[in-house]
Amino acid sequence: MRIAYVCVDPGIPVFGTKGASVHVQEIIRAFRALGHEVTVYATRIGKDVPEDLQDLTVHHFALGTKDPAAREVAQQEASAAIAEQLLADGAEFIYERYSLFSTVIADAGLPAVLEVNAPLIDEQARHRVLVDRESPLSAIRRQVRAAQATICVSEQVAEWVRQTTGNADRVHAVANGVNTRRITPQPEAAGRPVVTFVGTLKPWHGTEDAVRARALATTDWDLRIIGDGPERERLQQLADVLDLEVDFRGAVAPAEMPTHLAGSAIGVAPYPKPSEASDHYFSPLKVYEYMAAGLPVVATRIGQVPEVLLGDADNTTDDGACGVLVEGSNARELAEAIDALVADPALRAQLGANARQRAEDNHSWDSVLATILRHARVGAGRGPGGVGHTEAGPHVQED
């Protein structure tokens, strides 16, 4: 089947290093693994092209402006152009990552899945600039009505879609996944246990609490931070003030993540305490990566994290638990939880083994896509057409 993967969001490069880019790439891989031919239509491309996606055909619809109002109009124009182009290319099915101004699914009229990762209208109005408030509302309502299924990364996002569109039909929550073939368990490094954080260094990831927890620790462990972002300089200054040696690795390409996770003993996801329950709506890729790596996870008791780590929604530990939950914005409790795992290698090993098993059983990208296609009532088998081009680099067309 000829699949059109669409992303009109100018904040997400197809070939980038942040979590959203990883998500894009992994869904594409999962489709290609089923034998489908995938063509990408996007407003931002990026330069970190993985080796196995070098042959991917990509149509680039550059926006060409940074003025907020003009940029919103440019996204609507790109959406119209993408719908026209993918129909001309003979697409048979659309998989679109939701963006504010896109109506590609509604305009193209093909069988489609809409993937919603965040309440973007609320986010844009609260944290950035939203000039035209009516067009995004109209767009998501049209898109949800037209899609065979709207797939949301958490129940919180699904509820936002239902309330925003007034449409509860065909709206489903499917958590994110992880590439369990790329990320696999590796031995702990010799010497002090390594506690690792992965993610963009922004306030809502709580990385500061990980640094402060290291200063409060009563056992001896090293802190490794994989990722970059606007908080990095401040975090480095904090580490200096606290007289800590923290291993800042910077941003790494997804293909290099296994190398940087190597030697880790524990993974941390210290999200801050939310101001309200709806604040934590995302499905944290870092947690799934830790699990695939066979790491016990220390994470904030927030959103869907308890269910992922404990296997139920009641926050009660069972025999298959793969992590420890703490309160958000509490560096001391975080330090105590890490210290307890550092002092108990056998518990670390058991939680890590449980984590890997749960990642394999429930959270591989192949199983995530299979669930999505079941909701859309689409067969997952091979369709007509081959798998992409076989050129030396990605076939990027400027449209």
UniProtKB/TrEMBL annotation:
Give UniProt keywords alphabetically.
Glycosyltransferase, Transferase
Q: Which Enzyme Commission numbers does its entry carry?
A: 2.4.1.345
Q: Where is this region: Disordered?
A: 380-399
* A biological process from GO: carbohydrate derivative biosynthetic process
> Cross-referenced CDD domains, in alphabetical order?
GT4_PimA-like (cd03801)
Q: Which domain of life is it from?
A: Bacteria
Which molecular function GO terms apply here?
A: phosphatidylinositol alpha-mannosyltransferase activity
Boundaries of each Glycosyltransferase subfamily 4-like N-terminal domain copy?
19-182
Q: What is this protein called?
A: GDP-mannose-dependent alpha-(1-6)-phosphatidylinositol monomannoside mannosyltransferase
